Amino acid sequence: MTELRRPGGMLWAAYESLAMVFGLGLLALVCLLWLPFALLLLPILPRKTGERLGRRFISLGFRFYLRCLEIFCACDFDLDELDALRTEGPLIIAANHPSLLDVGLITSRLPNVVCVMKAAIMDNLLFGAAARLARYIRNDAPLETILGAREELHRGAQLVIFPEGTRTDPFPLGPCQKSTALIASRAGVPVQTLLIDFSSPYLGKRWPLFQRPSLPLKVSIRLGKRFSPSSDVSAFTAELEAYFREKLGQKSPLTVTNEQQQGAFS
């Protein structure tokens, strides 16, 4: 048992590999179980009913999934600060993007969010039907993305977007795109920032999908500054990026470990 509990030991490495298989397998299973229902309900339910049901299932599904990771996979998710946003009205929720898990972390606590997603994910057999039922927004047509986001915000949803446009590379932050500022300007909705910290770069840009995690994995999400919308898109984007760089560069315990781990895989 001492060898199993000691990170770096052979048994611990085997446990990390089993945890990886369990985590990826459980996610695929949850998606597969919902897939036929999402495919069936998408064409027959009214839009409002379908999106409410779809978003609720995604939220509950990820909450169940993350809880299983905590119980069986030596993960610790500190997401309590997100609960303060549940009862708020329309917001653009802008976060840094260190890992593939980021959408699941946020949606697990916020049941009425719509995400701006890569078109490849929207077209994916495993994830696409659930995303379309929840009325998530494709990112492959910029004007349609902005108009679709504005429509969802005006209908009361909260929008999740990653200003970097892709997973962070290099750490602690990649360059921010103007899409967040454009949506905020068009919709007249404030931007609430989130600061996501991982203890390792697990499922980050340079972490292969089937490479075992470095456990225990600790993740936290902090509420950051809330920005009012601005018509000066370039200035807003620069201010948003500067804010993220300042806060993510303050070397929280998780960020320090994250960057140390990232250096090992560069």
Commentary on this structure:
- The chain has one domain: Glycerol-3-phosphate (1)-acyltransferase, CATH 3.40.1130.
- The protein is 48% helix and 14% strand.
- The protein has helices at residues 2-5, 10-41, 47-72, 102-107, 119-122, 128-133, 142-154, 179-187, 233-248, 253-265; strands at 75-78, 92-95, 113-117, 137-138, 158-161, 191-198, 217-227.
Summarize it.
By secondary structure, the protein is of the alpha/beta class. The protein has helices at 2-5, 10-41, 47-72, 102-107, 119-122, 128-133, 142-154, 179-187, 233-248, 253-265, and strands at residues 75-78, 92-95, 113-117, 137-138, 158-161, 191-198, 217-227.
Any idea of the CATH topology? Answer: Glycerol-3-phosphate (1)-acyltransferase
Q: Helix coverage percent of residues? A: 40-55%
Number of domains: 1
CATH architecture: 3-Layer(aba) Sandwich
Provide tags for this entry.
266 residues, alpha/beta, 7-stranded mixed sheet, 10 helices, globular, disordered N terminus
What's the structural blueprint in terms of helices and strands?
Blueprint: H1 2-5, H2 10-41, H3 47-72, E1 75-78, E2 92-95, H4 102-107, E3 113-117, H5 119-122, H6 128-133, E4 137-138, H7 142-154, E5 158-161, H8 179-187, E6 191-198, E7 217-227, H9 233-248, H10 253-265
Parallel strand pairs: 1-7, 2-5, 2-6, 3-4, 3-5
Antiparallel strand pairs: 6-7
Helix pairs in contact: 2-3, 7-8, 8-9
